[in-house]
Structures are given as C-alpha cells and as structure tokens.
Design brief:
- It is a single chain.
- α1 crosses α2.
- The protein has about 80 residues and is mainly α.
- It contains five helices and no strands.
- The mean pLDDT is about 90.
- The protein is globular, with a radius of gyration of 13 Å.
- It is about 60% helix and about 0% strand.
C-alpha cells in the first residue's frame, strides 16, 4: 500500500497506481525489498520481520518472495 500511495502522490491515476504497485510487489527481489525497506526507514514489528525472514530463508538474492498472486491480486481500488 505504501507503494500505491507513493504512485498516487506522484500524480499517477488510481488504476495505474494500483497496477504499478501490484507489479512492483510481484517482481521485487529479496535484495530490492530489503533495500526499499531500509531506504524508507520502515520500522517493521517483530512478527512481520520473522515472516519476511521465513519467506526468503536460504533463497538466492534474486528470489521474488511475493511473486504469487496470493500476495498482490486481492488489492482493489473502490470509490474513484
């Protein structure tokens, strides 16, 4: 959702913002995600940190932890 709102703030339409955020989440690699979290200084709670570690444990750096539609397909924009 952070990525979606970043896109909206940049002046992109709602539909395109959502699509771009979904594509980003689908395609982001383990390393890119770690860099993005650090860049935006996100403070993740312990449970989320453990889930992310478990999801990418012993996976290569190019691993895409959120490639499955399970993680990104359910988001929708309503009311615009």
């Amino acid at each position: 959702m952070i990525k979606f709102y970043q896109n909206l703030r940049a002046g992109v339409s709602v539909a395109v913002s959502l699509n771009q955020a979904q594509c980003w989440l689908r395609d982001v690699t383990k390393i890119q995600l770690e860099e993005w979290i650090a860049e935006h200084q996100l403070r993740l709670d312990l449970t989320l940190k453990m889930q992310l570690r478990r999801l990418s444990y012993q996976k290569p750096d190019g691993f895409q932890p959120f490639q499955s539609p399970f993680y990104w397909a359910a988001f929708c924009a309503i009311g615009y």
